[in-house]
Amino acid sequence: MATRHLYLARHGAADAFGELTDIGRRQAGLLGERLAGVPVDAVWHSPLPRAAASANELARRLPDVPVTEAAELIDHVPYVPDVAETPPSWVGFFDGYDAAEAASGHRLAEALVARFAKVPDTTADVTRTDTHEVLVTHAYPIAWLVRHALDAPPVRWLGLNSSNTALTVIEYRDGLPPTIVMFNDMSHLPSDLRWTGFPKGMRP
Hints:
By secondary structure, this protein is of the alpha/beta class. The protein is 26% helix and 18% strand. Strand 5 and strand 6 form a beta hairpin.
């Protein structure tokens, strides 16, 4: 039985213009060092500069591993809840999202799941093997994949925050529900590089 191992990471810390900062580069490099012991087959990244730069920085520690852009990993709101299911603290967040924007975001979310949240691809004449893929993306797509793995209601992506370059690992096997191995793990980062990208009131 082959397993697809997805290593999900939010990009490194970025500035107000969406460019990776020196701190973000340090974070990405340390994540690459942590992943150097994993038999990584591919690094995929969001089209946005902060994710692309993070992917290339961590890939410097993963010789010969291909680094490729994946449109499905772009930052987007995966699901806009209706008024009845929206937690009070989130009501203002969705002001301005019209039906077309909500539908577009949800289509992206469905494409993300269809491409990555499944067992390894195979053909009849190829022996199926485990795959190990790193996805450098953003907090919302990570939250959506975690919610999907838990088979939770769509609204439950809200509040699943990820720190910059924190590691979330999900495994997919035939005939079994996805397994969340870890979520928002920052053990590769020193204390001064942890919790960036998290709302200050939510930092422990």
